[in-house]
Amino acid sequence: MKIATFNVNSIRRRIGGLIAWLNEAQPDVVLLQELKCQDEQFPALDLSGAGYQSAMVGQKAYNGVAVLSKHKIDVVMRALPGEDADDHARYIEADIDNGKEKLRVASIYLPNGNPIDTPKFPYKLRFLDRLRARAQELLALDRAVVLGGDYNVAPTDEDVFDIRKVAGDALVQPQTRLAWRAIVNLGYTDAFRALHGEPHQYTFWDYQAGAWPRDNGWRIDHLLLSPQAADRLEQCVIDRDVRGRPEASDHTPIWCSLKA
DNA sequence: ATGGTGGCGGTGCCA
């Protein structure tokens, strides 16, 4: 079972490249973020033509998350509980049933949180706390759970190109990292870090200031695994070359494979 | 040190 997460930065701009990558990588499940479209604009037909069912939560111009799957999708939730006033399309949770097993997944687009002296930062921290509460509930399922997405969190200084240049950024604040660890410490495994110790392995490079050619990146897209999923973890790979293609997203896909 | 890019939607907001 191969599960990927990919912030596409507009599904309509990226649909051609996305389908090309789906055909190559052949993931079973894909968690998408930053669709930047309303429900009726989502290219479900193109995706079904490529062999993927889809479930999504759209929003005009901003945010938007989806689950794609070769197997049956049963949507469990279309928003993260805990803040009724939050109308951003940032969370979708679903069961994937391949006939042999049921996998619980969520596609998460965490708030960026910049600048940190505005209400955007406390919103990010509240979202992280709400996610911790949901992640705790999901552990009670005693099943394989994969919480994937753009967390907008660089967990350590080794996960950014130069901490000195980005020290004031919401993605590296001590409070942000503390809230991230509160989720991990419930018993979730950062799939990439479980298998790779190398520093400076990135999933996002800004469009600005030549960040990609300079490799000025950030590791902020993550796959968090419940114990039952972590037991089965086989591989975790950042498909870095996708970022270098024409009309690329500013993020690149990362995927993990779980043994049967 | 500074300015630099991209997406949406049709102006500034967001990243």
**What's the CATH topology label?**
Deoxyribonuclease I, Chain A
* Basic shape: globular
What is the helix tally? 8
CATH class: Alpha Beta
**Spatial strand arrangement across the major sheet:** 3-4-2-1-14-13
Low-confidence stretches: none
If you average the pLDDT, what whole number results?
97
Largest sheet composition: 6 strands, mixed
Proportion of β residues? 25-35%
CATH architecture: 4-Layer Sandwich
Give a short synopsis of this structure:
The chain is of the alpha+beta class. It has helices at residues 11-25, 44-49, 120-139, 163-166, 174-184, 191-195, 211-214, 227-230; strands at residues 2-7, 29-33, 53-57, 65-69, 72-77, 91-97, 102-109, 145-150, 189-190, 204-205, 217-218, 221-225, 233-238, 254-258.
What does this molecule look like?
The relative contact order is 0.16. The termini are close together. About 25% of the residues lie in helices and about 25% in strands. A hairpin with a 4-residue loop joins strand 6 (about 90-95) and strand 7 (about 100-110). The chain is of the alpha+beta class and about 260 residues long. It has one domain (about 1-260): Deoxyribonuclease I, Chain A (4-Layer Sandwich), CATH 3.60.10. The radius of gyration is 17 Å and the shape is globular. The structure holds one DNA strand of 15 nucleotides.
